[in-house]
Amino acid sequence: MAGSGRSCCKVRPGDHMNKIFSSTRSPASYLLPSACCRLPPSSFPRLLLSVSCFFILLFPNLGALAQRKSGSHPSIERETLSNEDREDIDRAIGVVCSQRQLDSRGSVPIDVMQKRPSLSLRAPDVISGAERAQRLLANAKALAIASLRELSRTYKLDRSRGHSLRMSRAVARIQAVSRVKPDIDARDNASVYLKTPHTITFGTIFLAGLPSDEGMISVLAHELTHIGDGNSDTLRPLFQAVGERASSLTGMSIHEQRAEELTCDLIGALAVQSFITAAPNYDSLPRRLARSVEHNCVDEDDSDEEHLSPRNTLRAVLTLDRTLRRELVLGR
Predict the structure, then answer these.
(1) Is 234 a member of any domain?
(2) Are the C-beta atoms of residues 262 and 247 closer than 8 Å to each other?
(3) Are 315 and 293 in contact (CB under 8 A)?
(4) Sheet of 179-183: strands edge to edge?
């Protein structure tokens, strides 16, 4: 969405240029058995009496057993955050935003990007940003695919019917992406248009505002996840699972398009963690991890129907990803 200042946008062919895609689905249909096996009516009373006598003789204490067992099965416990978890999340947010201020390659916050004038395609920071994005695209595709598979295992979706087919379709779409396109009018956004599924469009302000490899990998993986979902909502089960867990843990309403956007952010953060492991350097671990999410360190914290606000996005990602927040806090 223009002016939203977020990595976003999956636009179907025919949609308005600035409309963020959201989808709805009708409830699933459930099939019930069409018939049951029935005994002849005349034999049913005699059989019932015989069966009842059999159970009374065999299990004289069946009634008492049922009474003792009533209510004894534990209900599924709702996942909650401990006080330590909440403190770690707050500390991790502090680390992310303080590292951004100290980092010469820290990402520009979204609200700051929004206020900047448009940059030409020939601006040095735009040229270097576009070159960085294109250079990292192949790596980002591999990392996004691996992160999608990891997240599917985490949420146990890899055991569900049709998962392999859905994943293979998502992977094929992601692997087909070949181009990063700078766009002045896109300003501080990154978008994918499903009529041109091989291209990720970056606003020139956004390209200039992500001077690190880690920041760029995060946004590329976000957009690649949108492309993997495609026209057919291939990744819908994953988006729903992440949204439901995030809603439960944070108390925020994270469904439909918000769930998709948050899942894309989470994939971006996971991709950066794998990238850091594979490409070590002399920067500290907290600094490199912070680059994946620090563009959310805003002063003006606005939201819309399709997105959480930047700071709530940051909180939700750190709530879902315990490893990320612990490594930010502990530095390992």
Answers:
(1) yes
(2) no
(3) no
(4) 7-11, 190-193, 199-203, 179-183
What is the tens place of the pLDDT at every residue in 243-292? 999 999 999 999 999 999 999 999 999 999 999 999 999 999 999 999 99
Q: Identify whether the C-beta of residue 19 lies closer than 8 Å to the C-beta of residue 1.
A: yes
Could you tell me if residue 71 is inside a domain? Answer: no
Question: Is residue 27 pLDDT above 60, yes or no?
Answer: no
Contact 329, 91 (CB under 8 A): yes
pLDDT at 78: 78
Crossing angle of the two packed helices 236-250 and 256-278, in degrees rounded to 10: 90
Judge whether 203 lies within some domain. no
Query: Number of structural domains, the chain?
Result: 1
Rounded Cα distance, 199 and 82, in Å: 42
Q: Which spans in 155-212 are helix H?
A: 163-175, 204-208
Structural domain harbouring 98: 82-117+138-177+212-330
CA 162, 172, 220 angle in degrees (round to 5)? 115
**Per-residue pLDDT tens for 193-210?**
989 999 999 999 999 999
> Does residue 21 sit within a domain?
no
What is the pLDDT at residue 32?
25
CA atoms 54, 59, 65, 69: torsion sign: negative
**Per-residue pLDDT tens for 92-146?**
999 999 999 999 999 999 999 999 999 999 999 999 999 999 999 999 999 999 9
Phi-psi map region of 71: left, alpha, beta (phi>0 left; psi -120 to 50 alpha): left
AA identity, residue 289: L
Rounded to an integer, what distance in angstroms lies between the CA atom of residue 171 and that of residue 258? 22
Residue 242: C-alpha distances to residues 29, 171, 228, 267, 286 (Å): 23, 19, 16, 11, 25
What is the per-residue pLDDT across 198-252, written as a single tens digit (0 to 9) for each?
Answer: 999 999 999 999 999 999 999 999 999 999 999 999 999 999 999 999 999 999 9
